[in-house]
């Protein structure tokens, strides 16, 4: 049988470890050059955090909000994350909104919690939590709520409303499911949560963690071994989605609650709860279809201003360069893992995104 020159070349590479090493090293350097230093995690801090990487450019997630709560003796301090559903409405977890309107302030447009000059600060005129939000100490059923701002946020490069798959709950569900099943959806969470398991100090800078959705059955099997009440718990029925990191050693943590769970640039869920940060135990997120049903019936007509909404047909996706950054980070992870087949698939995906960016 005739063998193509390409096949012969690849066979020589496989038989020559040194040549293969040189190829991988060259691809590694090329990748660093293309994706830019802003996409690379700060490796010097990796031994001290629950994993993840620093997001230096807020325009990657311009809809994220730091929800700060008033504490006696401390003043306002970061407590939870949130997302700009509209420029007037902050979407977050129900358990993040326990208190009165004067107990909170909302900051958008900055990655640095300590930079008082950056970002836009707003206060709420009303807080509304989902009527079925219960069991806040455990599984946080229907753990969603909204805060209505006294003054709308101003749209800028760094402050924008979240990308939404559809305002129609059923259409949202149909579009969300394929994203959650795909291994190439680049799902991640972002927030200022604590930087180590068992810690109590928020991260000064915004961080992100790549997460992989798993099925409700997989989640039940894991949680059921730790807590009896989860042995027969139906995550899908209460609109909860579980996720784990690639190597089961990274996750969102305390202080990340309420923040966005984003896949391919679209916010599909809200960070709700989890146990044992940075371990194989999954994190749990509340998906948005059920929230949208409640929102459409009870809140939309009163608070949904047309001027502050990014319509589905015009929703700006994460820009090509931002997609390149996310693909680059994934590519580097595969490179380090030494899994050849997975590396090749990931690298081809990276090249595709890179070609789109350079075109």
UniProtKB/TrEMBL annotation:
<keyword id="KW-0720">Serine protease</keyword>
<dbReference type="InterPro" id="IPR001254">
    <property type="entry name" value="Trypsin_dom"/>
</dbReference>
<keyword id="KW-1015">Disulfide bond</keyword>
<comment type="similarity">
    <text>Belongs to the peptidase S1 family.</text>
</comment>
<dbReference type="Pfam" id="PF00089">
    <property type="entry name" value="Trypsin"/>
</dbReference>
<keyword id="KW-0472">Membrane</keyword>
<keyword id="KW-0812">Transmembrane</keyword>
<dbReference type="InterPro" id="IPR001314">
    <property type="entry name" value="Peptidase_S1A"/>
</dbReference>
<feature type="domain" description="Peptidase S1">
    <location>
        <begin position="49"/>
        <end position="300"/>
    </location>
</feature>
<dbReference type="InterPro" id="IPR009003">
    <property type="entry name" value="Peptidase_S1_PA"/>
</dbReference>
<keyword id="KW-0645">Protease</keyword>
<keyword id="KW-0378">Hydrolase</keyword>
<dbReference type="GO" id="GO:0004252">
    <property type="term" value="F:serine-type endopeptidase activity"/>
</dbReference>
<dbReference type="GO" id="GO:0006508">
    <property type="term" value="P:proteolysis"/>
</dbReference>
<dbReference type="InterPro" id="IPR043504">
    <property type="entry name" value="Peptidase_S1_PA_chymotrypsin"/>
</dbReference>
<keyword id="KW-1133">Transmembrane helix</keyword>
<protein>
    <recommendedName>
        <fullName>Peptidase S1 domain-containing protein</fullName>
    </recommendedName>
</protein>
<feature type="transmembrane region" description="Helical">
    <location>
        <begin position="18"/>
        <end position="37"/>
    </location>
</feature>
<dbReference type="InterPro" id="IPR050430">
    <property type="entry name" value="Peptidase_S1"/>
</dbReference>
């Amino acid at each position: 049988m005739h063998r193509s020159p390409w096949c012969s070349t690849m066979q020589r590479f496989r038989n020559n470890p040194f040549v293969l090493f040189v190829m991988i090293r060259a691809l590694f350097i090329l990748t660093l050059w293309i994706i830019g230093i802003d996409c690379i995690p700060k490796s010097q801090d990796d031994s001290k955090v629950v994993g993840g990487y620093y997001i230096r450019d807020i325009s990657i997630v311009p809809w994220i909000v730091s929800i700060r709560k008033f504490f006696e003796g401390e003043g306002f301090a970061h407590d939870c994350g949130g997302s700009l559903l509209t420029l007037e409405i902050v979407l977050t977890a129900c358990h993040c909104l326990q208190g009165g309107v004067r107990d909170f302030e909302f900051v958008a447009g900055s990655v640095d919690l300590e930079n008082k000059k950056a970002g836009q600060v707003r206060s709420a005129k009303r807080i509304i939590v989902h009527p079925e939000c219960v069991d806040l100490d455990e599984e946080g059923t229907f753990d969603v709520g909204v805060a209505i701002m006294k003054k709308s946020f101003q749209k800028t490069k760094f402050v924008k409303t979240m990308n939404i798959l559809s305002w129609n709950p059923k259409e949202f569900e149909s579009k969300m499911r394929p994203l959650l099943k795909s291994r190439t959806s680049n799902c991640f969470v972002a927030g200022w949560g604590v930087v180590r398991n068992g810690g109590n100090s928020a991260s000064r800078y915004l961080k992100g963690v790549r997460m992989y959705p798993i099925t409700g059955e997989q989640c039940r099997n894991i949680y059921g071994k730790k807590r009896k009440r989860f042995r027969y718990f139906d995550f899908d029925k209460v609109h909860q989605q579980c996720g784990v990191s690639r190597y089961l050693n990274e996750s969102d943590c305390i202080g990340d609650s309420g923040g966005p769970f984003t896949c391919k640039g679209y916010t599909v869920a809200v960070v709700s709860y989890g146990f044992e940060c940075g371990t194989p135990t999954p994190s749990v997120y509340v998906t948005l279809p059920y929230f949208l049903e409640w929102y459409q019936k009870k809140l939309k007509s009163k608070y949904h201003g047309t001027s502050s909404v990014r319509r589905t047909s015009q929703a700006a996706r994460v820009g090509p360069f931002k997609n390149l950054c996310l693909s680059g980070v994934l590519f580097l992870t595969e490179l380090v893992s030494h899994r050849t087949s997975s590396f090749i698939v990931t690298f081809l995906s990276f090249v595709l995104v890179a070609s789109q960016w350079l075109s």
